[in-house]
Request: fold
Amino acid sequence: MHEIVQWLLNTIGALGYPGVFMLMAMESSVIPIPSELVMPPAGYLAFQGKMNMTAAILCGTFGSLAGAYANYFASHYLGRPLIIKYGRYVLIPPEKFERVEKFFLQHGEISTFIGRLLPVVRHLISIPAGLAGMNHLRFSLYTLLGAGIWCSILTGIGYVIGENQQLIMQYAHKALVWVVLFCALLLAAYIWRQRRRMGIKA
Reply:
């Protein structure tokens, strides 16, 4: 692990902000590079005065958006036609796909935002967004919002703690617990609001 962190420090130090952008774009697509190993080193370099913290966060955030769009377009232009044509053969008939598509179009904003904050889910949430053809402006906005919060947390941890990877992972896990609790409360509030709105309409 120490060798990996040192390699990332050297890579980010050598490539600078484009390196942060590239690594986070890879992290948000299908290449399993944990953001916990990318943004804290950028924060540590900011602490050393070798990077600007705000610029590093912005590069990580927009890198995440670029990687998310790679999944979005791949699923929209490749996966969607395949599901429509052959989905019935793998237990996804057109009616079921339409229901899933309708659900995501109605609740895509909250799904995208929360998905960007959760491990594993952040790599996959762009796929249903692409399949459903989610509005680009909304997809970009909620992806940037979720990715920006997570990149800021990780960069801040790296800035405060430094290169101690064991402590970084420990605090990243603690931060993740709080993020999951926040997402649970946000989701509960969203469900309550939706039910209340449906009750008023009824």
The CA atoms of residues 21 and 78 lie 25 Å apart. The chain has one domain: 2-201.
